[in-house]
Amino acid sequence: MTRALEKYIRPGVKSTPFCPGCGHGILMGLILRAIDDLKMEMKKMLFVSGIGCAAWIPSPHYNGDTLHTLHGRAIAFATGAKLYNPDLCVMVVSGDGDLSSIGGNHLIHAARRNIDLKVICANNMIYGMTGGQVASTTPKGSRTSTTGEGNPYRPFDLCKLVEGAGATYVARFSVTQPILLIQSIKKAILHKGFSFIDVLSPCPTQYGRRNRLDRPDEMMKDLIRRCILEEEIEGLTEEERAEKIITGEFLS
Amino acid sequence: MPSKWVKTPFPKGRYYFSGNEAAAEGAIAAGCRFYAGYPITPSSELMERMAVRLQEVGGVFIQMEDEIASISAVIGASWAGAKAMTATSGPGFSLMQESIGYAAFTETPCVIIDVQRAGPCTGQATKVGSGDIMQAKWGSHGDYQVIALSPWSSQEMYDLTLRAFNLSETYRVPTMVMADEAIGHLRETIQIPSRVEIFDRMKRKGRAPFDSEEEDGVPPMPSFGEGERLAVTGSTHDGFGFRKTDDPQVHARLVSRINKKILNHRRTIIETEDYLIEDAEIALITYGFTARTSLYVVKRLRKEDWKIGMLRLKTLWPFPDEAVAQLGKRVRKILVPEMNLGQVAGEVRKYVPCDVHSLTQTNGEVIRPDVLIETLRRM
Ligand SMILES: Cc1ncc(C[n+]2csc(CCOP(=O)(O)OP(=O)(O)O)c2C)c(N)n1
Ligand SMILES: [Mg+2]
User: Fold this and answer.
1) Does the B273-378 domain belong in CATH 3.40.50.920?
2) Number of structural domains chain A divides into
3) A9 within domain boundaries
4) Does A8 reside within a domain?
5) What does the pLDDT average to over A209-217?
6) B29 pLDDT above the threshold of 80
């Protein structure tokens, strides 16, 4: 993170807690760039997170109000704060396990209500903090600490899920697409209604090392290779398509 | 702690209210302006009245997707500056426990009304019970304190809900009103006063919101959006909310303070009422709906020249140790009648040297006077 963004960091914070190669630190910086571009007043920003590595992205690092809640409950806490004080710009930053598994019910209901929350899901496709167990976002076949033979179940497509539930801004980008992602976070902040961004964030420590991508740079390169925009799908064979991750703005 | 007298938003007078309706009106009078809840018998009328009343007074009402979401939204709203509450019954109270622990550890004022029904599990959903008394104190993991009050009338559903908000704001602690189905659905005349005394959370700019110089102090609590750049976390934290999950001293200090700030102030928190105990040799220790039956029985047996009295616990947690201990020194025998298998009787035994008998009933019905009298005659 550059010096110019230091004013957004809570005084007293010395370093980030993330492992080498973790995408959460990149996302931490990109959210602040979006906030800086929009000249948002940090005094009116409330960052809510659940429990997990991703929940530490805002808490306590960001120099606004931060509310580090319980595993899965970030959106429910955020709903109460936003409804009582609508002047707050409320952003939820949390993990895939937190938001879509244990907190899945709150996610779809907040989307249904189209409540004005900006939800950023740091999706590393795994339970990072607890040691790499399978998540509801883990790709079918992937090895995890609880699926040694490969995950037998298919993952959620979180964008389709929240779109179906009623979200009004929906996008997916990877931390390897920083310009597009900053753009998308800015749109989510300005959007009035439930916005959701599924942010792909590599976890070499817990996911990569069990899936032949142990080196941080390998996971980054893999994401760069696999993330394509919706308009780039055409002309790809079925086989080529299968391994791609479609990114872009799906609803805006 | 400074208080102020405010006009009640409902016209002064006598009203024929159910306990649930009275509790809602007590909450509005206390300044409650946020309610989140999920339907469950026998508490639903309370939520329905809050939906109407909050719209009238300009507050926020939301029916959430479940009870976990409800209490979580209440805590979020409390940090945004609201006096906030939810109401539920057994199954919903169970779901709320993790968040109640969060509120205790982050020192978040909030009020939870549990209109108890006959458990365990789904039990007898429409019938009365009083089986959540221990859960109110011990339901979440770890060592923490809450305040729990026990109303015995519609009037007290109003008065004690109001008091629950005042205590919750004063001590920054989740506060429970442990009602039961019989009290929630009981309709009787209550008096709504023209003015009530209100306590608000203390605010001090720049001061640590999670630490105090006194070992039992209650720190000031700012709200989101006030520029205090709050860091709130349910992990162990220092005075300004920085996570300190490896420091034994920070953890011990915080856990100790959130317990002492309630226990050391229990003399001002606890309320009990004595009935005819001056010359009593036998005493009933009672609470909630059962206290009504008990008082009737005490008066009836007095006519037969029994030396019998009664102590009513209006506060259940922190437990009225002193009042119980004093009574235990004066009487020969104590009977604790309750609609559970002896949850408060067990507590009473910790503080008294005399005989403690326990009348337990878990059949979904209130304890009848003849059952109580029969038990006393056999004692
Ligand atoms: C009720 C509850 N169950 C389980 C846990 C243990 N737990 C802590 S973090 C976590 C997973 C977090 O995964 P995710 O949200 O994807 O975040 P990541 O660490 O991968 O960034 C779990 C299961 C908990 N804290 N609370
Ligand atoms: Mg994860």
Assistant:
1) yes
2) 1
3) no
4) no
5) 92
6) yes
Domain that includes residue A244, residue range: 19-251
Collect residues with CB below 5 Å from ion ligand 2: A 95-97, 124, 128
Q: Could you tell me if residue A55 is inside a domain?
A: yes
Residue with tokens 């550890």: B105
Residues of chain B with CATH 3.40.50.970: 3-199
Mutating which of B67, B228, B232, B245 best tests the A interface, going by the most A Cβ atoms within 10 A? Answer: B232
* pLDDT attached to residue B90: 98
Please give the structure tokens belonging to residue A226.
């696999």
Residue carrying structure tokens 């249904």: A112
Q: Residue A1: which pLDDT band, with cuts at 50, 70 and 90? A: low
Distance CA A203, CA B181 (A): 51
All residues of chain B having their beta carbon less than 8 Å from the beta carbon of residue A106 are 65, 69, 72
Give me the pLDDT at residue A235, please. Answer: 87
CB-CB contact of B103 with B96 (8 Å): no
> What is the CATH number assigned to the segment(s) B3-199?
3.40.50.970
pLDDT > 90 fraction of chain B, expressed in percent and rounded: 99
Structure tokens at B202: 């203390």
Q: Write the pLDDT tens digit of every residue in B307-316.
A: 999 999 999 9
Q: Residue A208: helix, strand or coil by DSSP?
A: helix
